[in-house]
Amino acid sequence: MWFLYGLSWASTVLQICFVTLAIAAGLYYLAELVEEYTVMTAKVIRWMVVFVLLTYIGLFIFENIPTALVACGIIAQLAHLALLSSFPFFTVSSPAFILAVIMVIVNHYFAFSYFGENYYPFSEVMAYFTICMWLVPFAFFVSLSANENVLPTISERRPLMSDDSDVVTNYFSKKQKGYGLLSVFNSVKDSVTPNKGQFKSY
């Protein structure tokens, strides 16, 4: 009895590890696609925002969702559209970025308050959170590394310049310090897997 119980816990741990590896592999593949097809990624995110906006309109017409919840969701999607104007570059101090972050917090507060007071099946609650609240922010999160392979432009001259160095040199020096999702995965891969020079020929 106890042996099978211990096996169940061991299998649960293995399943969690397999699911984690699968999610990490999927995110790595998505991050590579985003870096390779930046323009297409912007179009996909824009269509995601339009889809979420239509979803909010449908919830307002066909469901008894509070007007405040729908209005906050629409404001968040408009902030996401404003972020796309400078995609794949994001400025943390920009009004659109600040508004988008604030609306994520506000939307979660209103959503938890509403669904905590009103009963809905778990599948419907997860459908609302997945489509209306997590889909577009997750797409932006995956696309954080998209601007690491974009060549510098004239508009980037001022932030890229430091002292009297030229734009291209400073750009490639900054590019080596990636901060996107793909850079995180690459750093983890380099720290876990050995280099080719570490293998000894026998």
Keywords:
mainly alpha, 202 residues, flat
Descriptive overview:
This protein is an all-alpha fold and 202 residues long. The protein contains 8 helices and no strands. α2 packs antiparallel against α5 and α3 packs antiparallel against α4. It is flat and about 55 Å long. About 7% of the residues have low confidence.
What secondary-structure arrangement, pairings included, does this model have?
Layout: H1 2-36, H2 38-62, H3 67-83, H4 95-117, H5 122-142, H6 157-160, H7 167-175, H8 181-192
Helix pairs in contact: 2-3, 2-5, 3-4, 4-5
Q: What kind of sheet is the major sheet? A: none
| Count of alpha and pi helical runs | 8
Order of helices and strands: HHHHHHHH
- Poorly predicted runs: 151-164
The rounded Rg comes to 22 Å
On the 0-100 scale, what is the average pLDDT? 78
Strand tally: 0
Q: Helical amount among residues, as a percent range?
A: over 70%
